[in-house]
Specification:
Blueprint: E1 5-8, H1 9-14, E2 20-22, H2 26-29, E3 48-49, E4 55-56, E5 68-70, E6 73-75, E7 90-94, H3 98-108, E8 111-115, E9 120-125, E10 136-139
Antiparallel strand pairs: 1-10, 2-7, 3-4, 5-6, 7-9, 8-9
């Protein structure tokens, strides 16, 4: 079982010291972002394995089919049901490398997509109305543990 540490969203986003530029109209000008989401990571999820050692993928509670990632959401290809839909409130163009995105996704659960038009990664922010250093977040990185309001 992995240990999770409390941090805040500002620490998570700034962990690799990447530049961010707000671009909330990217969904209207670049359709590729909907097809290029990085795999979603739920830091609290512990996978289960079958007798052969293969990971048992999440199943649809309605029909039992294996859920698939569609954009930022896990959806059933059979019946269209799925987990709670993720709403993205802000889109930030970043200078993240592939390594940065993988690290921030795996250790902080951040959501990224890729813009073919801009040839760069886009950070997807799923909350609004609160300063980032006051948004409770989790990480697997013990060095990133912070209280709300604390900076990096």
């Amino acid at each position: 079982m992995k240990t999770l540490y409390h941090t805040n969203f500002a620490v998570a986003v700034n962990w690799c010291n990447n530049a961010l530029v707000l671009c909330n109209n990217i969904p209207q000008i670049d359709d590729s972002i909907w097809d290029n989401f990085e795999p979603i990571v739920d830091l609290g999820y512990e996978p289960e394995y079958d007798e052969e050692g293969d990971e048992i993928k999440p199943k649809c509670p309605e029909c039992g089919a294996e859920l698939e990632q569609v954009g930022p959401n896990m959806v059933c290809p059979e019946c269209g049901d799925g987990e709670d839909q993720i709403e993205i409130y802000q889109w930030f163009i970043t200078d993240c490398s592939k390594w940065d995105v993988e690290y921030l996704t795996q250790h902080f659960g951040l959501i990224f997509t890729y813009s073919d038009l801009l040839d760069c990664y886009i950070l997807c922010v799923t909350h609004c109305g609160t300063g980032w250093d006051y948004v409770d977040w989790q990480t697997t990185n013990p060095n990133a543990e912070r209280k709300l309001g604390e900076k990096k």
